[in-house]
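ok so i was messing around last nite and threw this chain in just to see what happens. nothing serious, just curious
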Amino acid sequence: VLQRSGDRSGALYEYEQFLKVAQSHDVDPSLYAEVHANMGAICAMQGKGTDSNTISHEQKAATRIKAKEAFMEAVKYRPSLGSAWVNLALLLLAEGKDVGTITDANLSQKEQSTTVESILKEARQCCERALGMDNEDERSRALANKLIGDIDSMMRQSK
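result:
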């Protein structure tokens, strides 16, 4: 409810409390994998700067790391959670976009290109996993298919 009403910080706090209670009572993590996915979605939104227009690059990177960790936890405990795979792919694509647009003095053009290509491949693998699982979420399946087409197009353009 908090997440849908826009209170992302409140929702994140409640999810963290839920996880503490579930873990302290030895609840099977596969039963609450979606909580990790929801936490990842909140962190990913915060990493985009949707909660504040003044988010620094470092804050953006930190929230994306949290989002990635949450999505990875979700798919670790429930590998068939297609929405988490798709969100992980979207997060990776955002990282790749940043690598491609932010000039890093420590990376040569070739190294940046290799990094972006690697990220695109990883994002594509996430989409393939979303499609390869017993995933009944039609929305995530449709988005995974669309992303694969977009990723393939980006990879062709980068060559």
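not much to say yet. Residues 89 and 125 are 8 Å apart (CA to CA).
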